[in-house]
Q: What sequence folds into this?
């Protein structure tokens, strides 16, 4: 009988050629097949695998070697300490997107009962993380994909997060003239001819690709921000590492002020923030 430790060693070797995170990928998939946590797997290296488990593991290994994300193979991804359901209908949440959540929470810190809008919510990762941290917030999550919205709604239900409402539609269209204290978004920002799409071929194109060299969605979000932000409200948008200058320019052209770009843990420009001018008592 094959022991867990031997299966893990073989998986690591096989994945090394296709993944920069081969050891982690191997642990996650083996733990998934065995029905264990990664911590439990580490303490049970001598556990034997049944033939049916070996067969299931081989199927997953072949799919991983074909480039399919681990999150799609297990149906789960952790984000902001929340275990989210993930399907091919949604983009896999990335660790760098947690910067967007951190910045949004900092913007909301002085406010009581803030209203937040998440555009292009996908799995609901950003909206649910903010809603979990700020139970007094009223969070609205919008997505143009009905299938993605269904995943987000299931995540909210399973996590018992009740202060999020989900709306189906394109960007600001479903919210009408509603104003928000913060608008957050991780929109599509990959150019249509970007070679990186070959690596991302298993993820939904709608969540990845934008026109205008990847800036089309960011431009649309910026253009509508003033109509949907409360006085002193903030727009925070995630973008590609080379798009910081363009994002700042788009926010400036849209009439936002206090514009700044923040770097992720890899020191790459990742999130740009802009605000509306706060109305004085005299001008209100």
A:
């Amino acid at each position: 009988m094959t022991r867990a430790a031997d299966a893990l060693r073989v998986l690591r070797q096989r994945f090394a050629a296709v993944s920069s995170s081969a050891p982690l990928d191997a642990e996650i998939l083996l733990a998934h097949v065995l029905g264990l946590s990664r911590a439990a797997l580490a303490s049970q290296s001598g556990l034997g695998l049944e033939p049916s488990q070996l067969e299931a593991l081989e199927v997953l290994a072949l799919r991983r070697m074909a480039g399919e994300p681990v999150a799609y193979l297990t149906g789960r991804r952790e984000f902001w300490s929340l275990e989210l359901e993930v399907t091919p209908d949604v983009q896999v949440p990335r660790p760098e997107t947690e910067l967007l959540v951190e910045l949004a929470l900092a913007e909301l810190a002085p406010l009581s009962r803030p209203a937040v809008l998440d555009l292009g919510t996908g799995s609901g990762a950003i909206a649910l993380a903010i809603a979990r941290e700020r139970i007094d917030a009223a969070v609205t999550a919008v997505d143009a994909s009905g299938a993605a919205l269904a995943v987000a709604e299931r995540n909210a239900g399973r996590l018992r997060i009740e202060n999020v409402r989900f709306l189906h539609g394109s960007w600001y269209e479903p919210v009408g003239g509603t104003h928000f204290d913060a608008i957050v978004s991780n929109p599509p920002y990959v150019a249509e001819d970007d070679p990186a799409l070959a690596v991302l071929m298993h993820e939904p194109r709608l969540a990845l690709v934008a026109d205008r060299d990847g800036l089309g969605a960011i431009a649309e979000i910026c253009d509508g921000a003033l109509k949907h932000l409360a006085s002193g409200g903030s727009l925070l948008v995630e973008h590609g590492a080379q798009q910081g200058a363009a994002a700042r320019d788009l926010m400036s052209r849209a009439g936002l002020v206090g514009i700044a770009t923040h770097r992720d843990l890899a020191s790459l420009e990742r999130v740009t923030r802009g605000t509306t001018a706060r109305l004085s008592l005299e001008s209100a």
User: Anything to note?
Assistant: The longest helix spans residues 51-65.
